[in-house]
Amino acid sequence: xxxxxxxxxxxxxxxxxxxxxxxxxxxxxxxxxxxxxxxxxxxxxxxxxxxxxxxxxxxxxxxxxxxxxxxxxxxxxxxxxxxxxxxxxxxxxxxxxxxxxxxxxxxxxxxxxxxxxxxxxxxxxxxxxxxxxxxxxxxxxxxxxxxxxxxxxxxxxxxxxxxxxxxxxxxxxxxxxxxxxxxxxxxxxxxxxxxxxxxxxx
Length: 202
Fold this sequence. Notes:
Strand content: 15-25%
Order of helices and strands: EEEHEEEHEHHHEHEHE
Number of strands: 10
Oligomer: single chain
Mean pLDDT: 83
Strand order of the largest sheet: 7-8-9-3-10
Low-confidence stretches: 6-16
């Protein structure tokens, strides 16, 4: 199995030695959870060093720039583009091969319907609630058809009911489409819903 190690001044070396479908990354603050996600998607800062190999679908991701890894990542902050409408934000996530205006609009409208945001394509992101913005961010990532999905506490700003429903949607989408998924969270309900193997970083 592959081993990934991280080190930085005054941070103990950590190992991950797991394979997963929908898995949980668990550990105390500063142990390297977000660094592990950055290693996988190719954005680990130069101040860090890493040994080991990240593999996806039987192939190594080593040496590939982030845009060629096709790994989707969601953060606690939604990172929507403020100068774009909701629909334009979603359209930004579509694969390059989806070029027809009608097809792009149809996919955006379908994504809005799945997220319970029908009729909001022309809205400014700043007019949305935190939960609505979170759903737009999730749908934008899913529209990109990622080969793997990394979740860095993306449900934390949603209220309890919406958190449960949308978390269920994201996990079901990942499983149904066989998208390997890693979740970083401190919420026990998130961990229970993931129902996958745990990578514990010490």
